[in-house]
Amino acid sequence: MITIRRADSLGLAHSDTLTLRCHFAFADYQEPQDDEHEGRLTAINLGTIPSQGCYQLGPEANVDIITWLRSGSLRTHVEDFPAESIHSGGLHLLSTGAGVHAMAWQAGADGASFIQFWLLADTEGGEPTQEAREAFPKLEDGGFRIVASGFPEDDPEEMEVIDDGAPVTLRALSRVLHADIPAGEGAAYQTMPGRDLYVLVVRGGITICDMPLSEGDGAMLTQTERVVVMATQDAVVILTDIAS
Hints:
This protein is mainly β.
């Protein structure tokens, strides 16, 4: 089954002076259908922060918060962790574990546009962790690259500095993948039974099952093991693979 969420139907949630465009219920936005989220994926939020502006949250526990930067720059401020600088195409993971009381993302001089994914952890508690990555290298075939994963087989080798595009580590048995697909080409992804896939169009246009999607649109494919995304124009797509 496929369910399409169009960009012009997204909800609005407010945090201080920031307005988020939400694919699921979040903060002060509640969906009319009372569908708060999809399985372990509790939020997909699109936000824009003005120059030197700040997006603040807290407290949060037992959730993985992935922030992918569309443009501009961000500097993170998370209690008990060093600040991280994130640039266009980069990614920040905050795994809140037993609890983080205060967290913030501050935009640089050019502001920042970001997409944030919230995934429930499979186990509660544990020490909070954070990871950051620079922009991931493009795959030559335009296929999906894993940028975040809780699957053991995707776990990067332990090293002091990770510079090979290895994914950040989630506490949920989930994946987040990124694809930069040239117009007229496609990208395929295969997973295991009992999974739901959420496809978000970051830029450009695509088709899934002959259904067209444009920038900001999302598509939920329930109980799906394989998806093929075709680009009708140069497209950037983020795919989330979660347990049903």
